[in-house]
Amino acid sequence: MSVIRTRFAPSPTGHLHIGGARTALFNYLYARRHGGQFVLRIEDSDRERSTDEFTLSILEALSWLGLDYDEGPHYQSRRSAYYAEVIERLLAGGHAYHCICTPEDLEAKRAAAQQQGRVSGYDRTCRDAGHTPQQGRRSVVRLKVPLEGQTLMTDVIRGVIAFENRELDDFVIVRSDGNPMFHLVNVADDIDMGITHILRGEDHITNTPRQMQIFAALGARPPVYGHMPLIVGQDRTRLSKRHGATSVLAYRQAGFLPEATINYLARLGWSHGDQEVFTRQELIELFDPGDINKAAAAWDIEKYSWVNAQHMRGRGLEELTRLVRPQLAERGQGGCEEARLRQAVALVRERARTLVELADQLEPLVANAITYEAKAAEKFLGDKECSLLLGLCERLEVIESWEAPAIDAAFRALCESQAIKLGALAQPARVALTGGTASPGIFELCAVLGRERTIARIREACTAAANGALPLRAPAQ
Ligand code: GLU
User: Fold this and answer.
1) From the CA of 15, how far away is ligand 1's center (Å)?
2) Which of 33, 188, 193, 458 is most deeply buried (CB count within 10 A of its CB)?
């Protein structure tokens, strides 16, 4: 059996979006599973809409996801000589022809056909006219599609789909400016690059019979196709900016891990029993395009976050600390010494689903100055609470070993002496130390903060609260 070769062929007209990344992933997985090759081709033949910036951004996103390719990137913009040769071959073989109908002619024909209730495709006026290109005369090249019969596409996801050839139209393969069209370059490259399998979005289904006609005209065997379901938002409409960020790199920025992203992308339309968490190796071993659903897949940021949390657990403490530091640095909090940051990460990691959430949790633990939620401060940093807190500071000052059990004992002793519940002290302390009411265990929190910082922060908070001078922040969402 010949080697399996798949490809990812993005057009650099935007950043790599979720749908594109899933397409790349599935082609990658299929090639890896079967010991084949995964080719990257940048479809930048549309020079007006393609930019180098988007190409670089796509390459960066693929590299972040770890979707390494065995060949490429090939650039269509550098392959014009090859396309010219393919066009010549089609013309010489009588599979394509020059059409000199003007846009006005075509529009008039279309209107007439519509009025008479006929299918409004090209009426093939020039099909057998034998036109040759002439100076000063505008012409395009069209493919001579058989007038009868059917094009049968066997799709690994959808089964066999039949298209009537007469409905395919003699579509344009070269524009009047001499530039080849998408269908032509796409197929010419798939032939030249020996692509055996193509997984792509279902928006390409209607392109496929036309492309299969080009394969046939060039005497080449078409690849095996699989058209994947659309990705939709929770409202079941096609995923778009309205549903949040669609670019993959935006999720790197939002603190998602590449392995979690791959895991979640794979689950968009593909499943393996009810397993939700997969390593890359498992995906490679299990991925079968036959298991891809026909129904649209719904993008669910909650689920993605959950999957990310699972993968964050899989990363060691040291690793997570390394990953979160840039997030903290962006907030001007990158300088925390390693041991203390690691201790802080250990304390809050279970409470965070993304690296950004982890940084949110870490911030009060590593920052020199914090801000306060107005409501929490109002409720928990009144005169009565502050006098309790100042009493607490006195007890904290004399603890022998600054560790959670001793801190715990100091809190409890004060509560006992005042005949109050632990919560009546712990909650004000939490607000004084973190600025909000949600935090990990208060004793562990104090332990990580260190004695000096804990006491200073409580005292400063109480003074500022008494003077109405607490630095406030917007409430958490
Ligand atoms: N450049 C096309 C796209 O981005 C590729 C289509 C294909 O995979 O054949 O949609």
Assistant:
1) 14
2) 188
Residue 109 known to be catalytic: no
Q: Is the CB of 79 under 6 A from ligand 1?
A: no
Q: Is 434 in the pocket of ligand 1 (CB under 6 A)?
A: no
Contact 354, 302 (CB under 8 A): no
Q: Rounded to the nearest 5°, which phi and psi values hold at 188?
A: -55, -40
What type of residue sits at position 247? Answer: S
Cα–Cα distance between 125 and 129 in angstroms, integer?
A: 8
Residue 447 has pLDDT above 90, yes or no: yes
For the stretch 184-242, pLDDT in tens is 999 999 999 999 999 999 999 999 999 999 999 999 999 999 999 999 999 988 888 88
For residues 375 and 475, the answer to whether their CB atoms sit within 8 Å is yes
Q: What's the whole-model pTM score?
A: 0.90
Ligand 1 centre to CA of 182 (Å) is: 9
Triad 433, 448, 473: Cα angle to 5° = 30
CA-to-CA separations, 432 to 298, 344, 385, 390, 453, in angstroms, rounded: 42, 18, 10, 11, 12
